[in-house]
Amino acid sequence: MGLFILRRLGVMLLTALCLTFVVFFLTNLYPNLEKLAKTQGNFRMSDEQVESYLTSRGYLQPLPRKYAEWLGIAPGYLSSDTEGKPVGRCIRPGIEADKVPTRCGILQGDWGFSTVFKEPVSVIIGTRLALTAKLMLWVMLLMVPSALIVGVLAGMREGSRTDRTLSTASIASTATPEYVSGVIFIALLASSRYGVSPMLAEAGLIEGKTLFKGTATTAMEAANFQNFFLPVLTISLYGMGYIARMTRASMAEVMTAQYIRTARLKGVSFRNIVMKHALRNALIAPFTVIMLQIPWLLNGVVIVETLFNYKGFGWTLVQAAGNNDIELLLGVSVVSVFVVLITQLLSDIGYVFLNPRIRIS
């Protein structure tokens, strides 16, 4: 097990370097750098002024050199602008020129400085990632148990009316994008003029004008059922159907296995067959899907966080891409890459605990 984990960590490190280099290359294409120069300087800058701006700040260096500086392997670029002020990668507001560090990259814990939010990238990502982690936690608590229950109930008796009903509902939830279900929930449950809320308000069953709030901004500080349930439900429904379908297929396959038939012939009750014999083996395939939901949730909440104005990790990704905030976009990409790789490692290790007969090759 230890050797397997070490090999996987080595592969993960190599994969992370390759993926981050690709993202670094795409974000440092000249059109992006030109847009950055005009955004930070003047939109009426001439081509010569743009080139001078980018040259003085080290953006036009060879790509491997810039990537090494971003990682913190090579010393950070340091120069001066047309006014004689020191500029470079390691220059930060409030830091004197003689105290500027030689290296300032990922390895030193310096993720760069956001040109839009005017804050260190590490601070922004830490704050926004905590907000999305809170959202992901409640989504997983609602989505995973519900999906497993639906999948097991559907797979226990393949072809029954319960199976057909639950399978149809699972397919419908997966086929409905978050931006569709989210808008429907807002219209039905969070509108003061349409849907359920006006009727409940007239009957005096709810306080205020709406049952839920159409925005989750207040949930960033104090989450409650009224301002947090709709985004949680929107994300959960989309992922629930996929997990339920995978669980149903795995459960139906296990229920036709020879050892299940033997248990039935021995007179073991159907409940014990499901709980003690079939369920553990049926959860091996859904376990992979559940683990893959974590990186999907981290980046797939972009639509939901934007729709409900919840300023988490996905919202930050949209802002970084829309405003050409290169350093912030790179920081978000690094976090996304490592979450995907670590999740896959945990998924592989989890296989062994679910079924020790699985060989590690």
Summarize the helices and strands and which ones pair or pack.
Elements: H1 2-27, H2 30-40, H3 47-56, H4 63-71, E1 78-80, E2 86-88, H5 121-156, H6 161-175, H7 178-189, H8 197-202, H9 225-255, H10 258-265, H11 270-282, H12 284-300, H13 302-307, H14 313-322, H15 326-354
Antiparallel strand pairs: 1-2
What letter string, H or E per element, gives the SSE order? HHHHEEHHHHHHHHHHH
Architecture of the largest domain, CATH level 2? Orthogonal Bundle
Lateral strand order in the biggest sheet: 1-2
What would you call the structural class?
mainly alpha
CATH H-level superfamily of the largest domain: MetI-like
Radius of gyration: 26 Å
Please name the CATH topology of the largest domain: MetI-like fold
Unreliable residue runs = none
- How many domains comprise the coordinates? 2
